Fold this sequence. Notes:
Elements: E1 2-4, H1 15-27, E2 34-40, E3 46-53, H2 61-77, E4 82-89, H3 92-96, H4 98-110, E5 115-123, E6 126-129, E7 138-139, H5 140-143, H6 145-153, H7 162-166, H8 175-195, H9 199-214, H10 234-243, H11 247-258, H12 266-284, H13 291-305, H14 308-321, H15 326-337, H16 342-349, H17 353-358
Parallel strand pairs: 4-5
Antiparallel strand pairs: 1-3, 2-3, 2-4, 5-6, 6-7
Helix pairs in contact: 1-6, 2-4, 8-10, 9-11, 11-13, 12-13, 13-14, 13-15, 14-15
Amino acid sequence: MSIQPFEPADLILRGPTQVAASIPYLLGFQPSESLVVVFATSHGRHILTARVDVPRSVSDIATLVDSVALMCWRAHENDAAFVSFIFYLSEPEGEECLVPAVQAVQGAVEQSGLRLDSISSVRHGIWRDELDDDVPAVLLEEVGLDAAAQWVAHGVTYEQSREALAARVCGSETELARQVRELVASRGDSWQSQLVKTQAARRLVEDQIFDYLMTDMAQASPDRGRVSQELPKADDLATWAVALADNRVREPVLWRLAAGFGTSDTSAAHIHKEALPRLCALVRNVPNELVAPIASCAAAFAWQLGDGAMASIAADHGLSANPRNVLCGLVMSAVVGGVHPRVWIEMLGSMTLKQLRSGPCRNKPHNSSGRC
């Protein structure tokens, strides 16, 4: 499942076809074999976009209904009043289940207290209204042109598939990842312990990571030297990957990424938006045995930004490397359950930066030295 709460600025979407045309921009990728659910307030303001797999057989429809019912309940908690459904189908199995799936989804909405806005499908680029046979089918690429133009004008793009989006954080091992592994192995447990032994040492790494993620490339001054979006050197990345396994480094970084988020400061919003691709690139270049802590940061930050698709991809990547990673599990559960990102912001805000920096190390030892 992928869920994305998103608040587009000044976008006007007229009718279900323009909503359908907006789905790839809301999710970050072009869905296929998917049911996409869009929630809005009573004033028409978008709240949440969710995606689940379409049922492959009639027996799978019950699972679909359970997912839809949970999403509707969560969305209703977050002030949703209207809900729309769009089925994206290309394979015969999904099309055979479409009619009973539509009926089941209708029933689930009736029990939720939400108002059903529309149920439609997109098959081979053709949009169809699944509740009214008298509404003519249309080529989505043509009727959705205005909506697409608005997204592009706001600088929003999407990948052609979820696999392409996932490639930003995982794939075959890179040369940089191999260098990071060799450095960590050659330096041993003593070096790893020293990175987080004192508060001053932890603060140094915390600042390095935060500065790398949050430097505004457009506003970097010449006297600060050349600043670019290039990846860090293997030495720095090895240090960051190891240090982020310590909650006294990881949580202060996440706290600072959340501080001031959601304000009216447009420049800060721009920097936050640009920081996620940088963080994903770091994850992509860390070897698998070290990746879970930094993947958990990417997952949590993506969730904070409302990028549910990337949050679930990063969390899944971290859990594949370490199924016991608590933060990855938390983010995955939140995304699947449709929990609003403000819950994450409030959770971090319940602690002070000083408390997070000086608190006890809560992670379990994972090497011979017992380092957390």
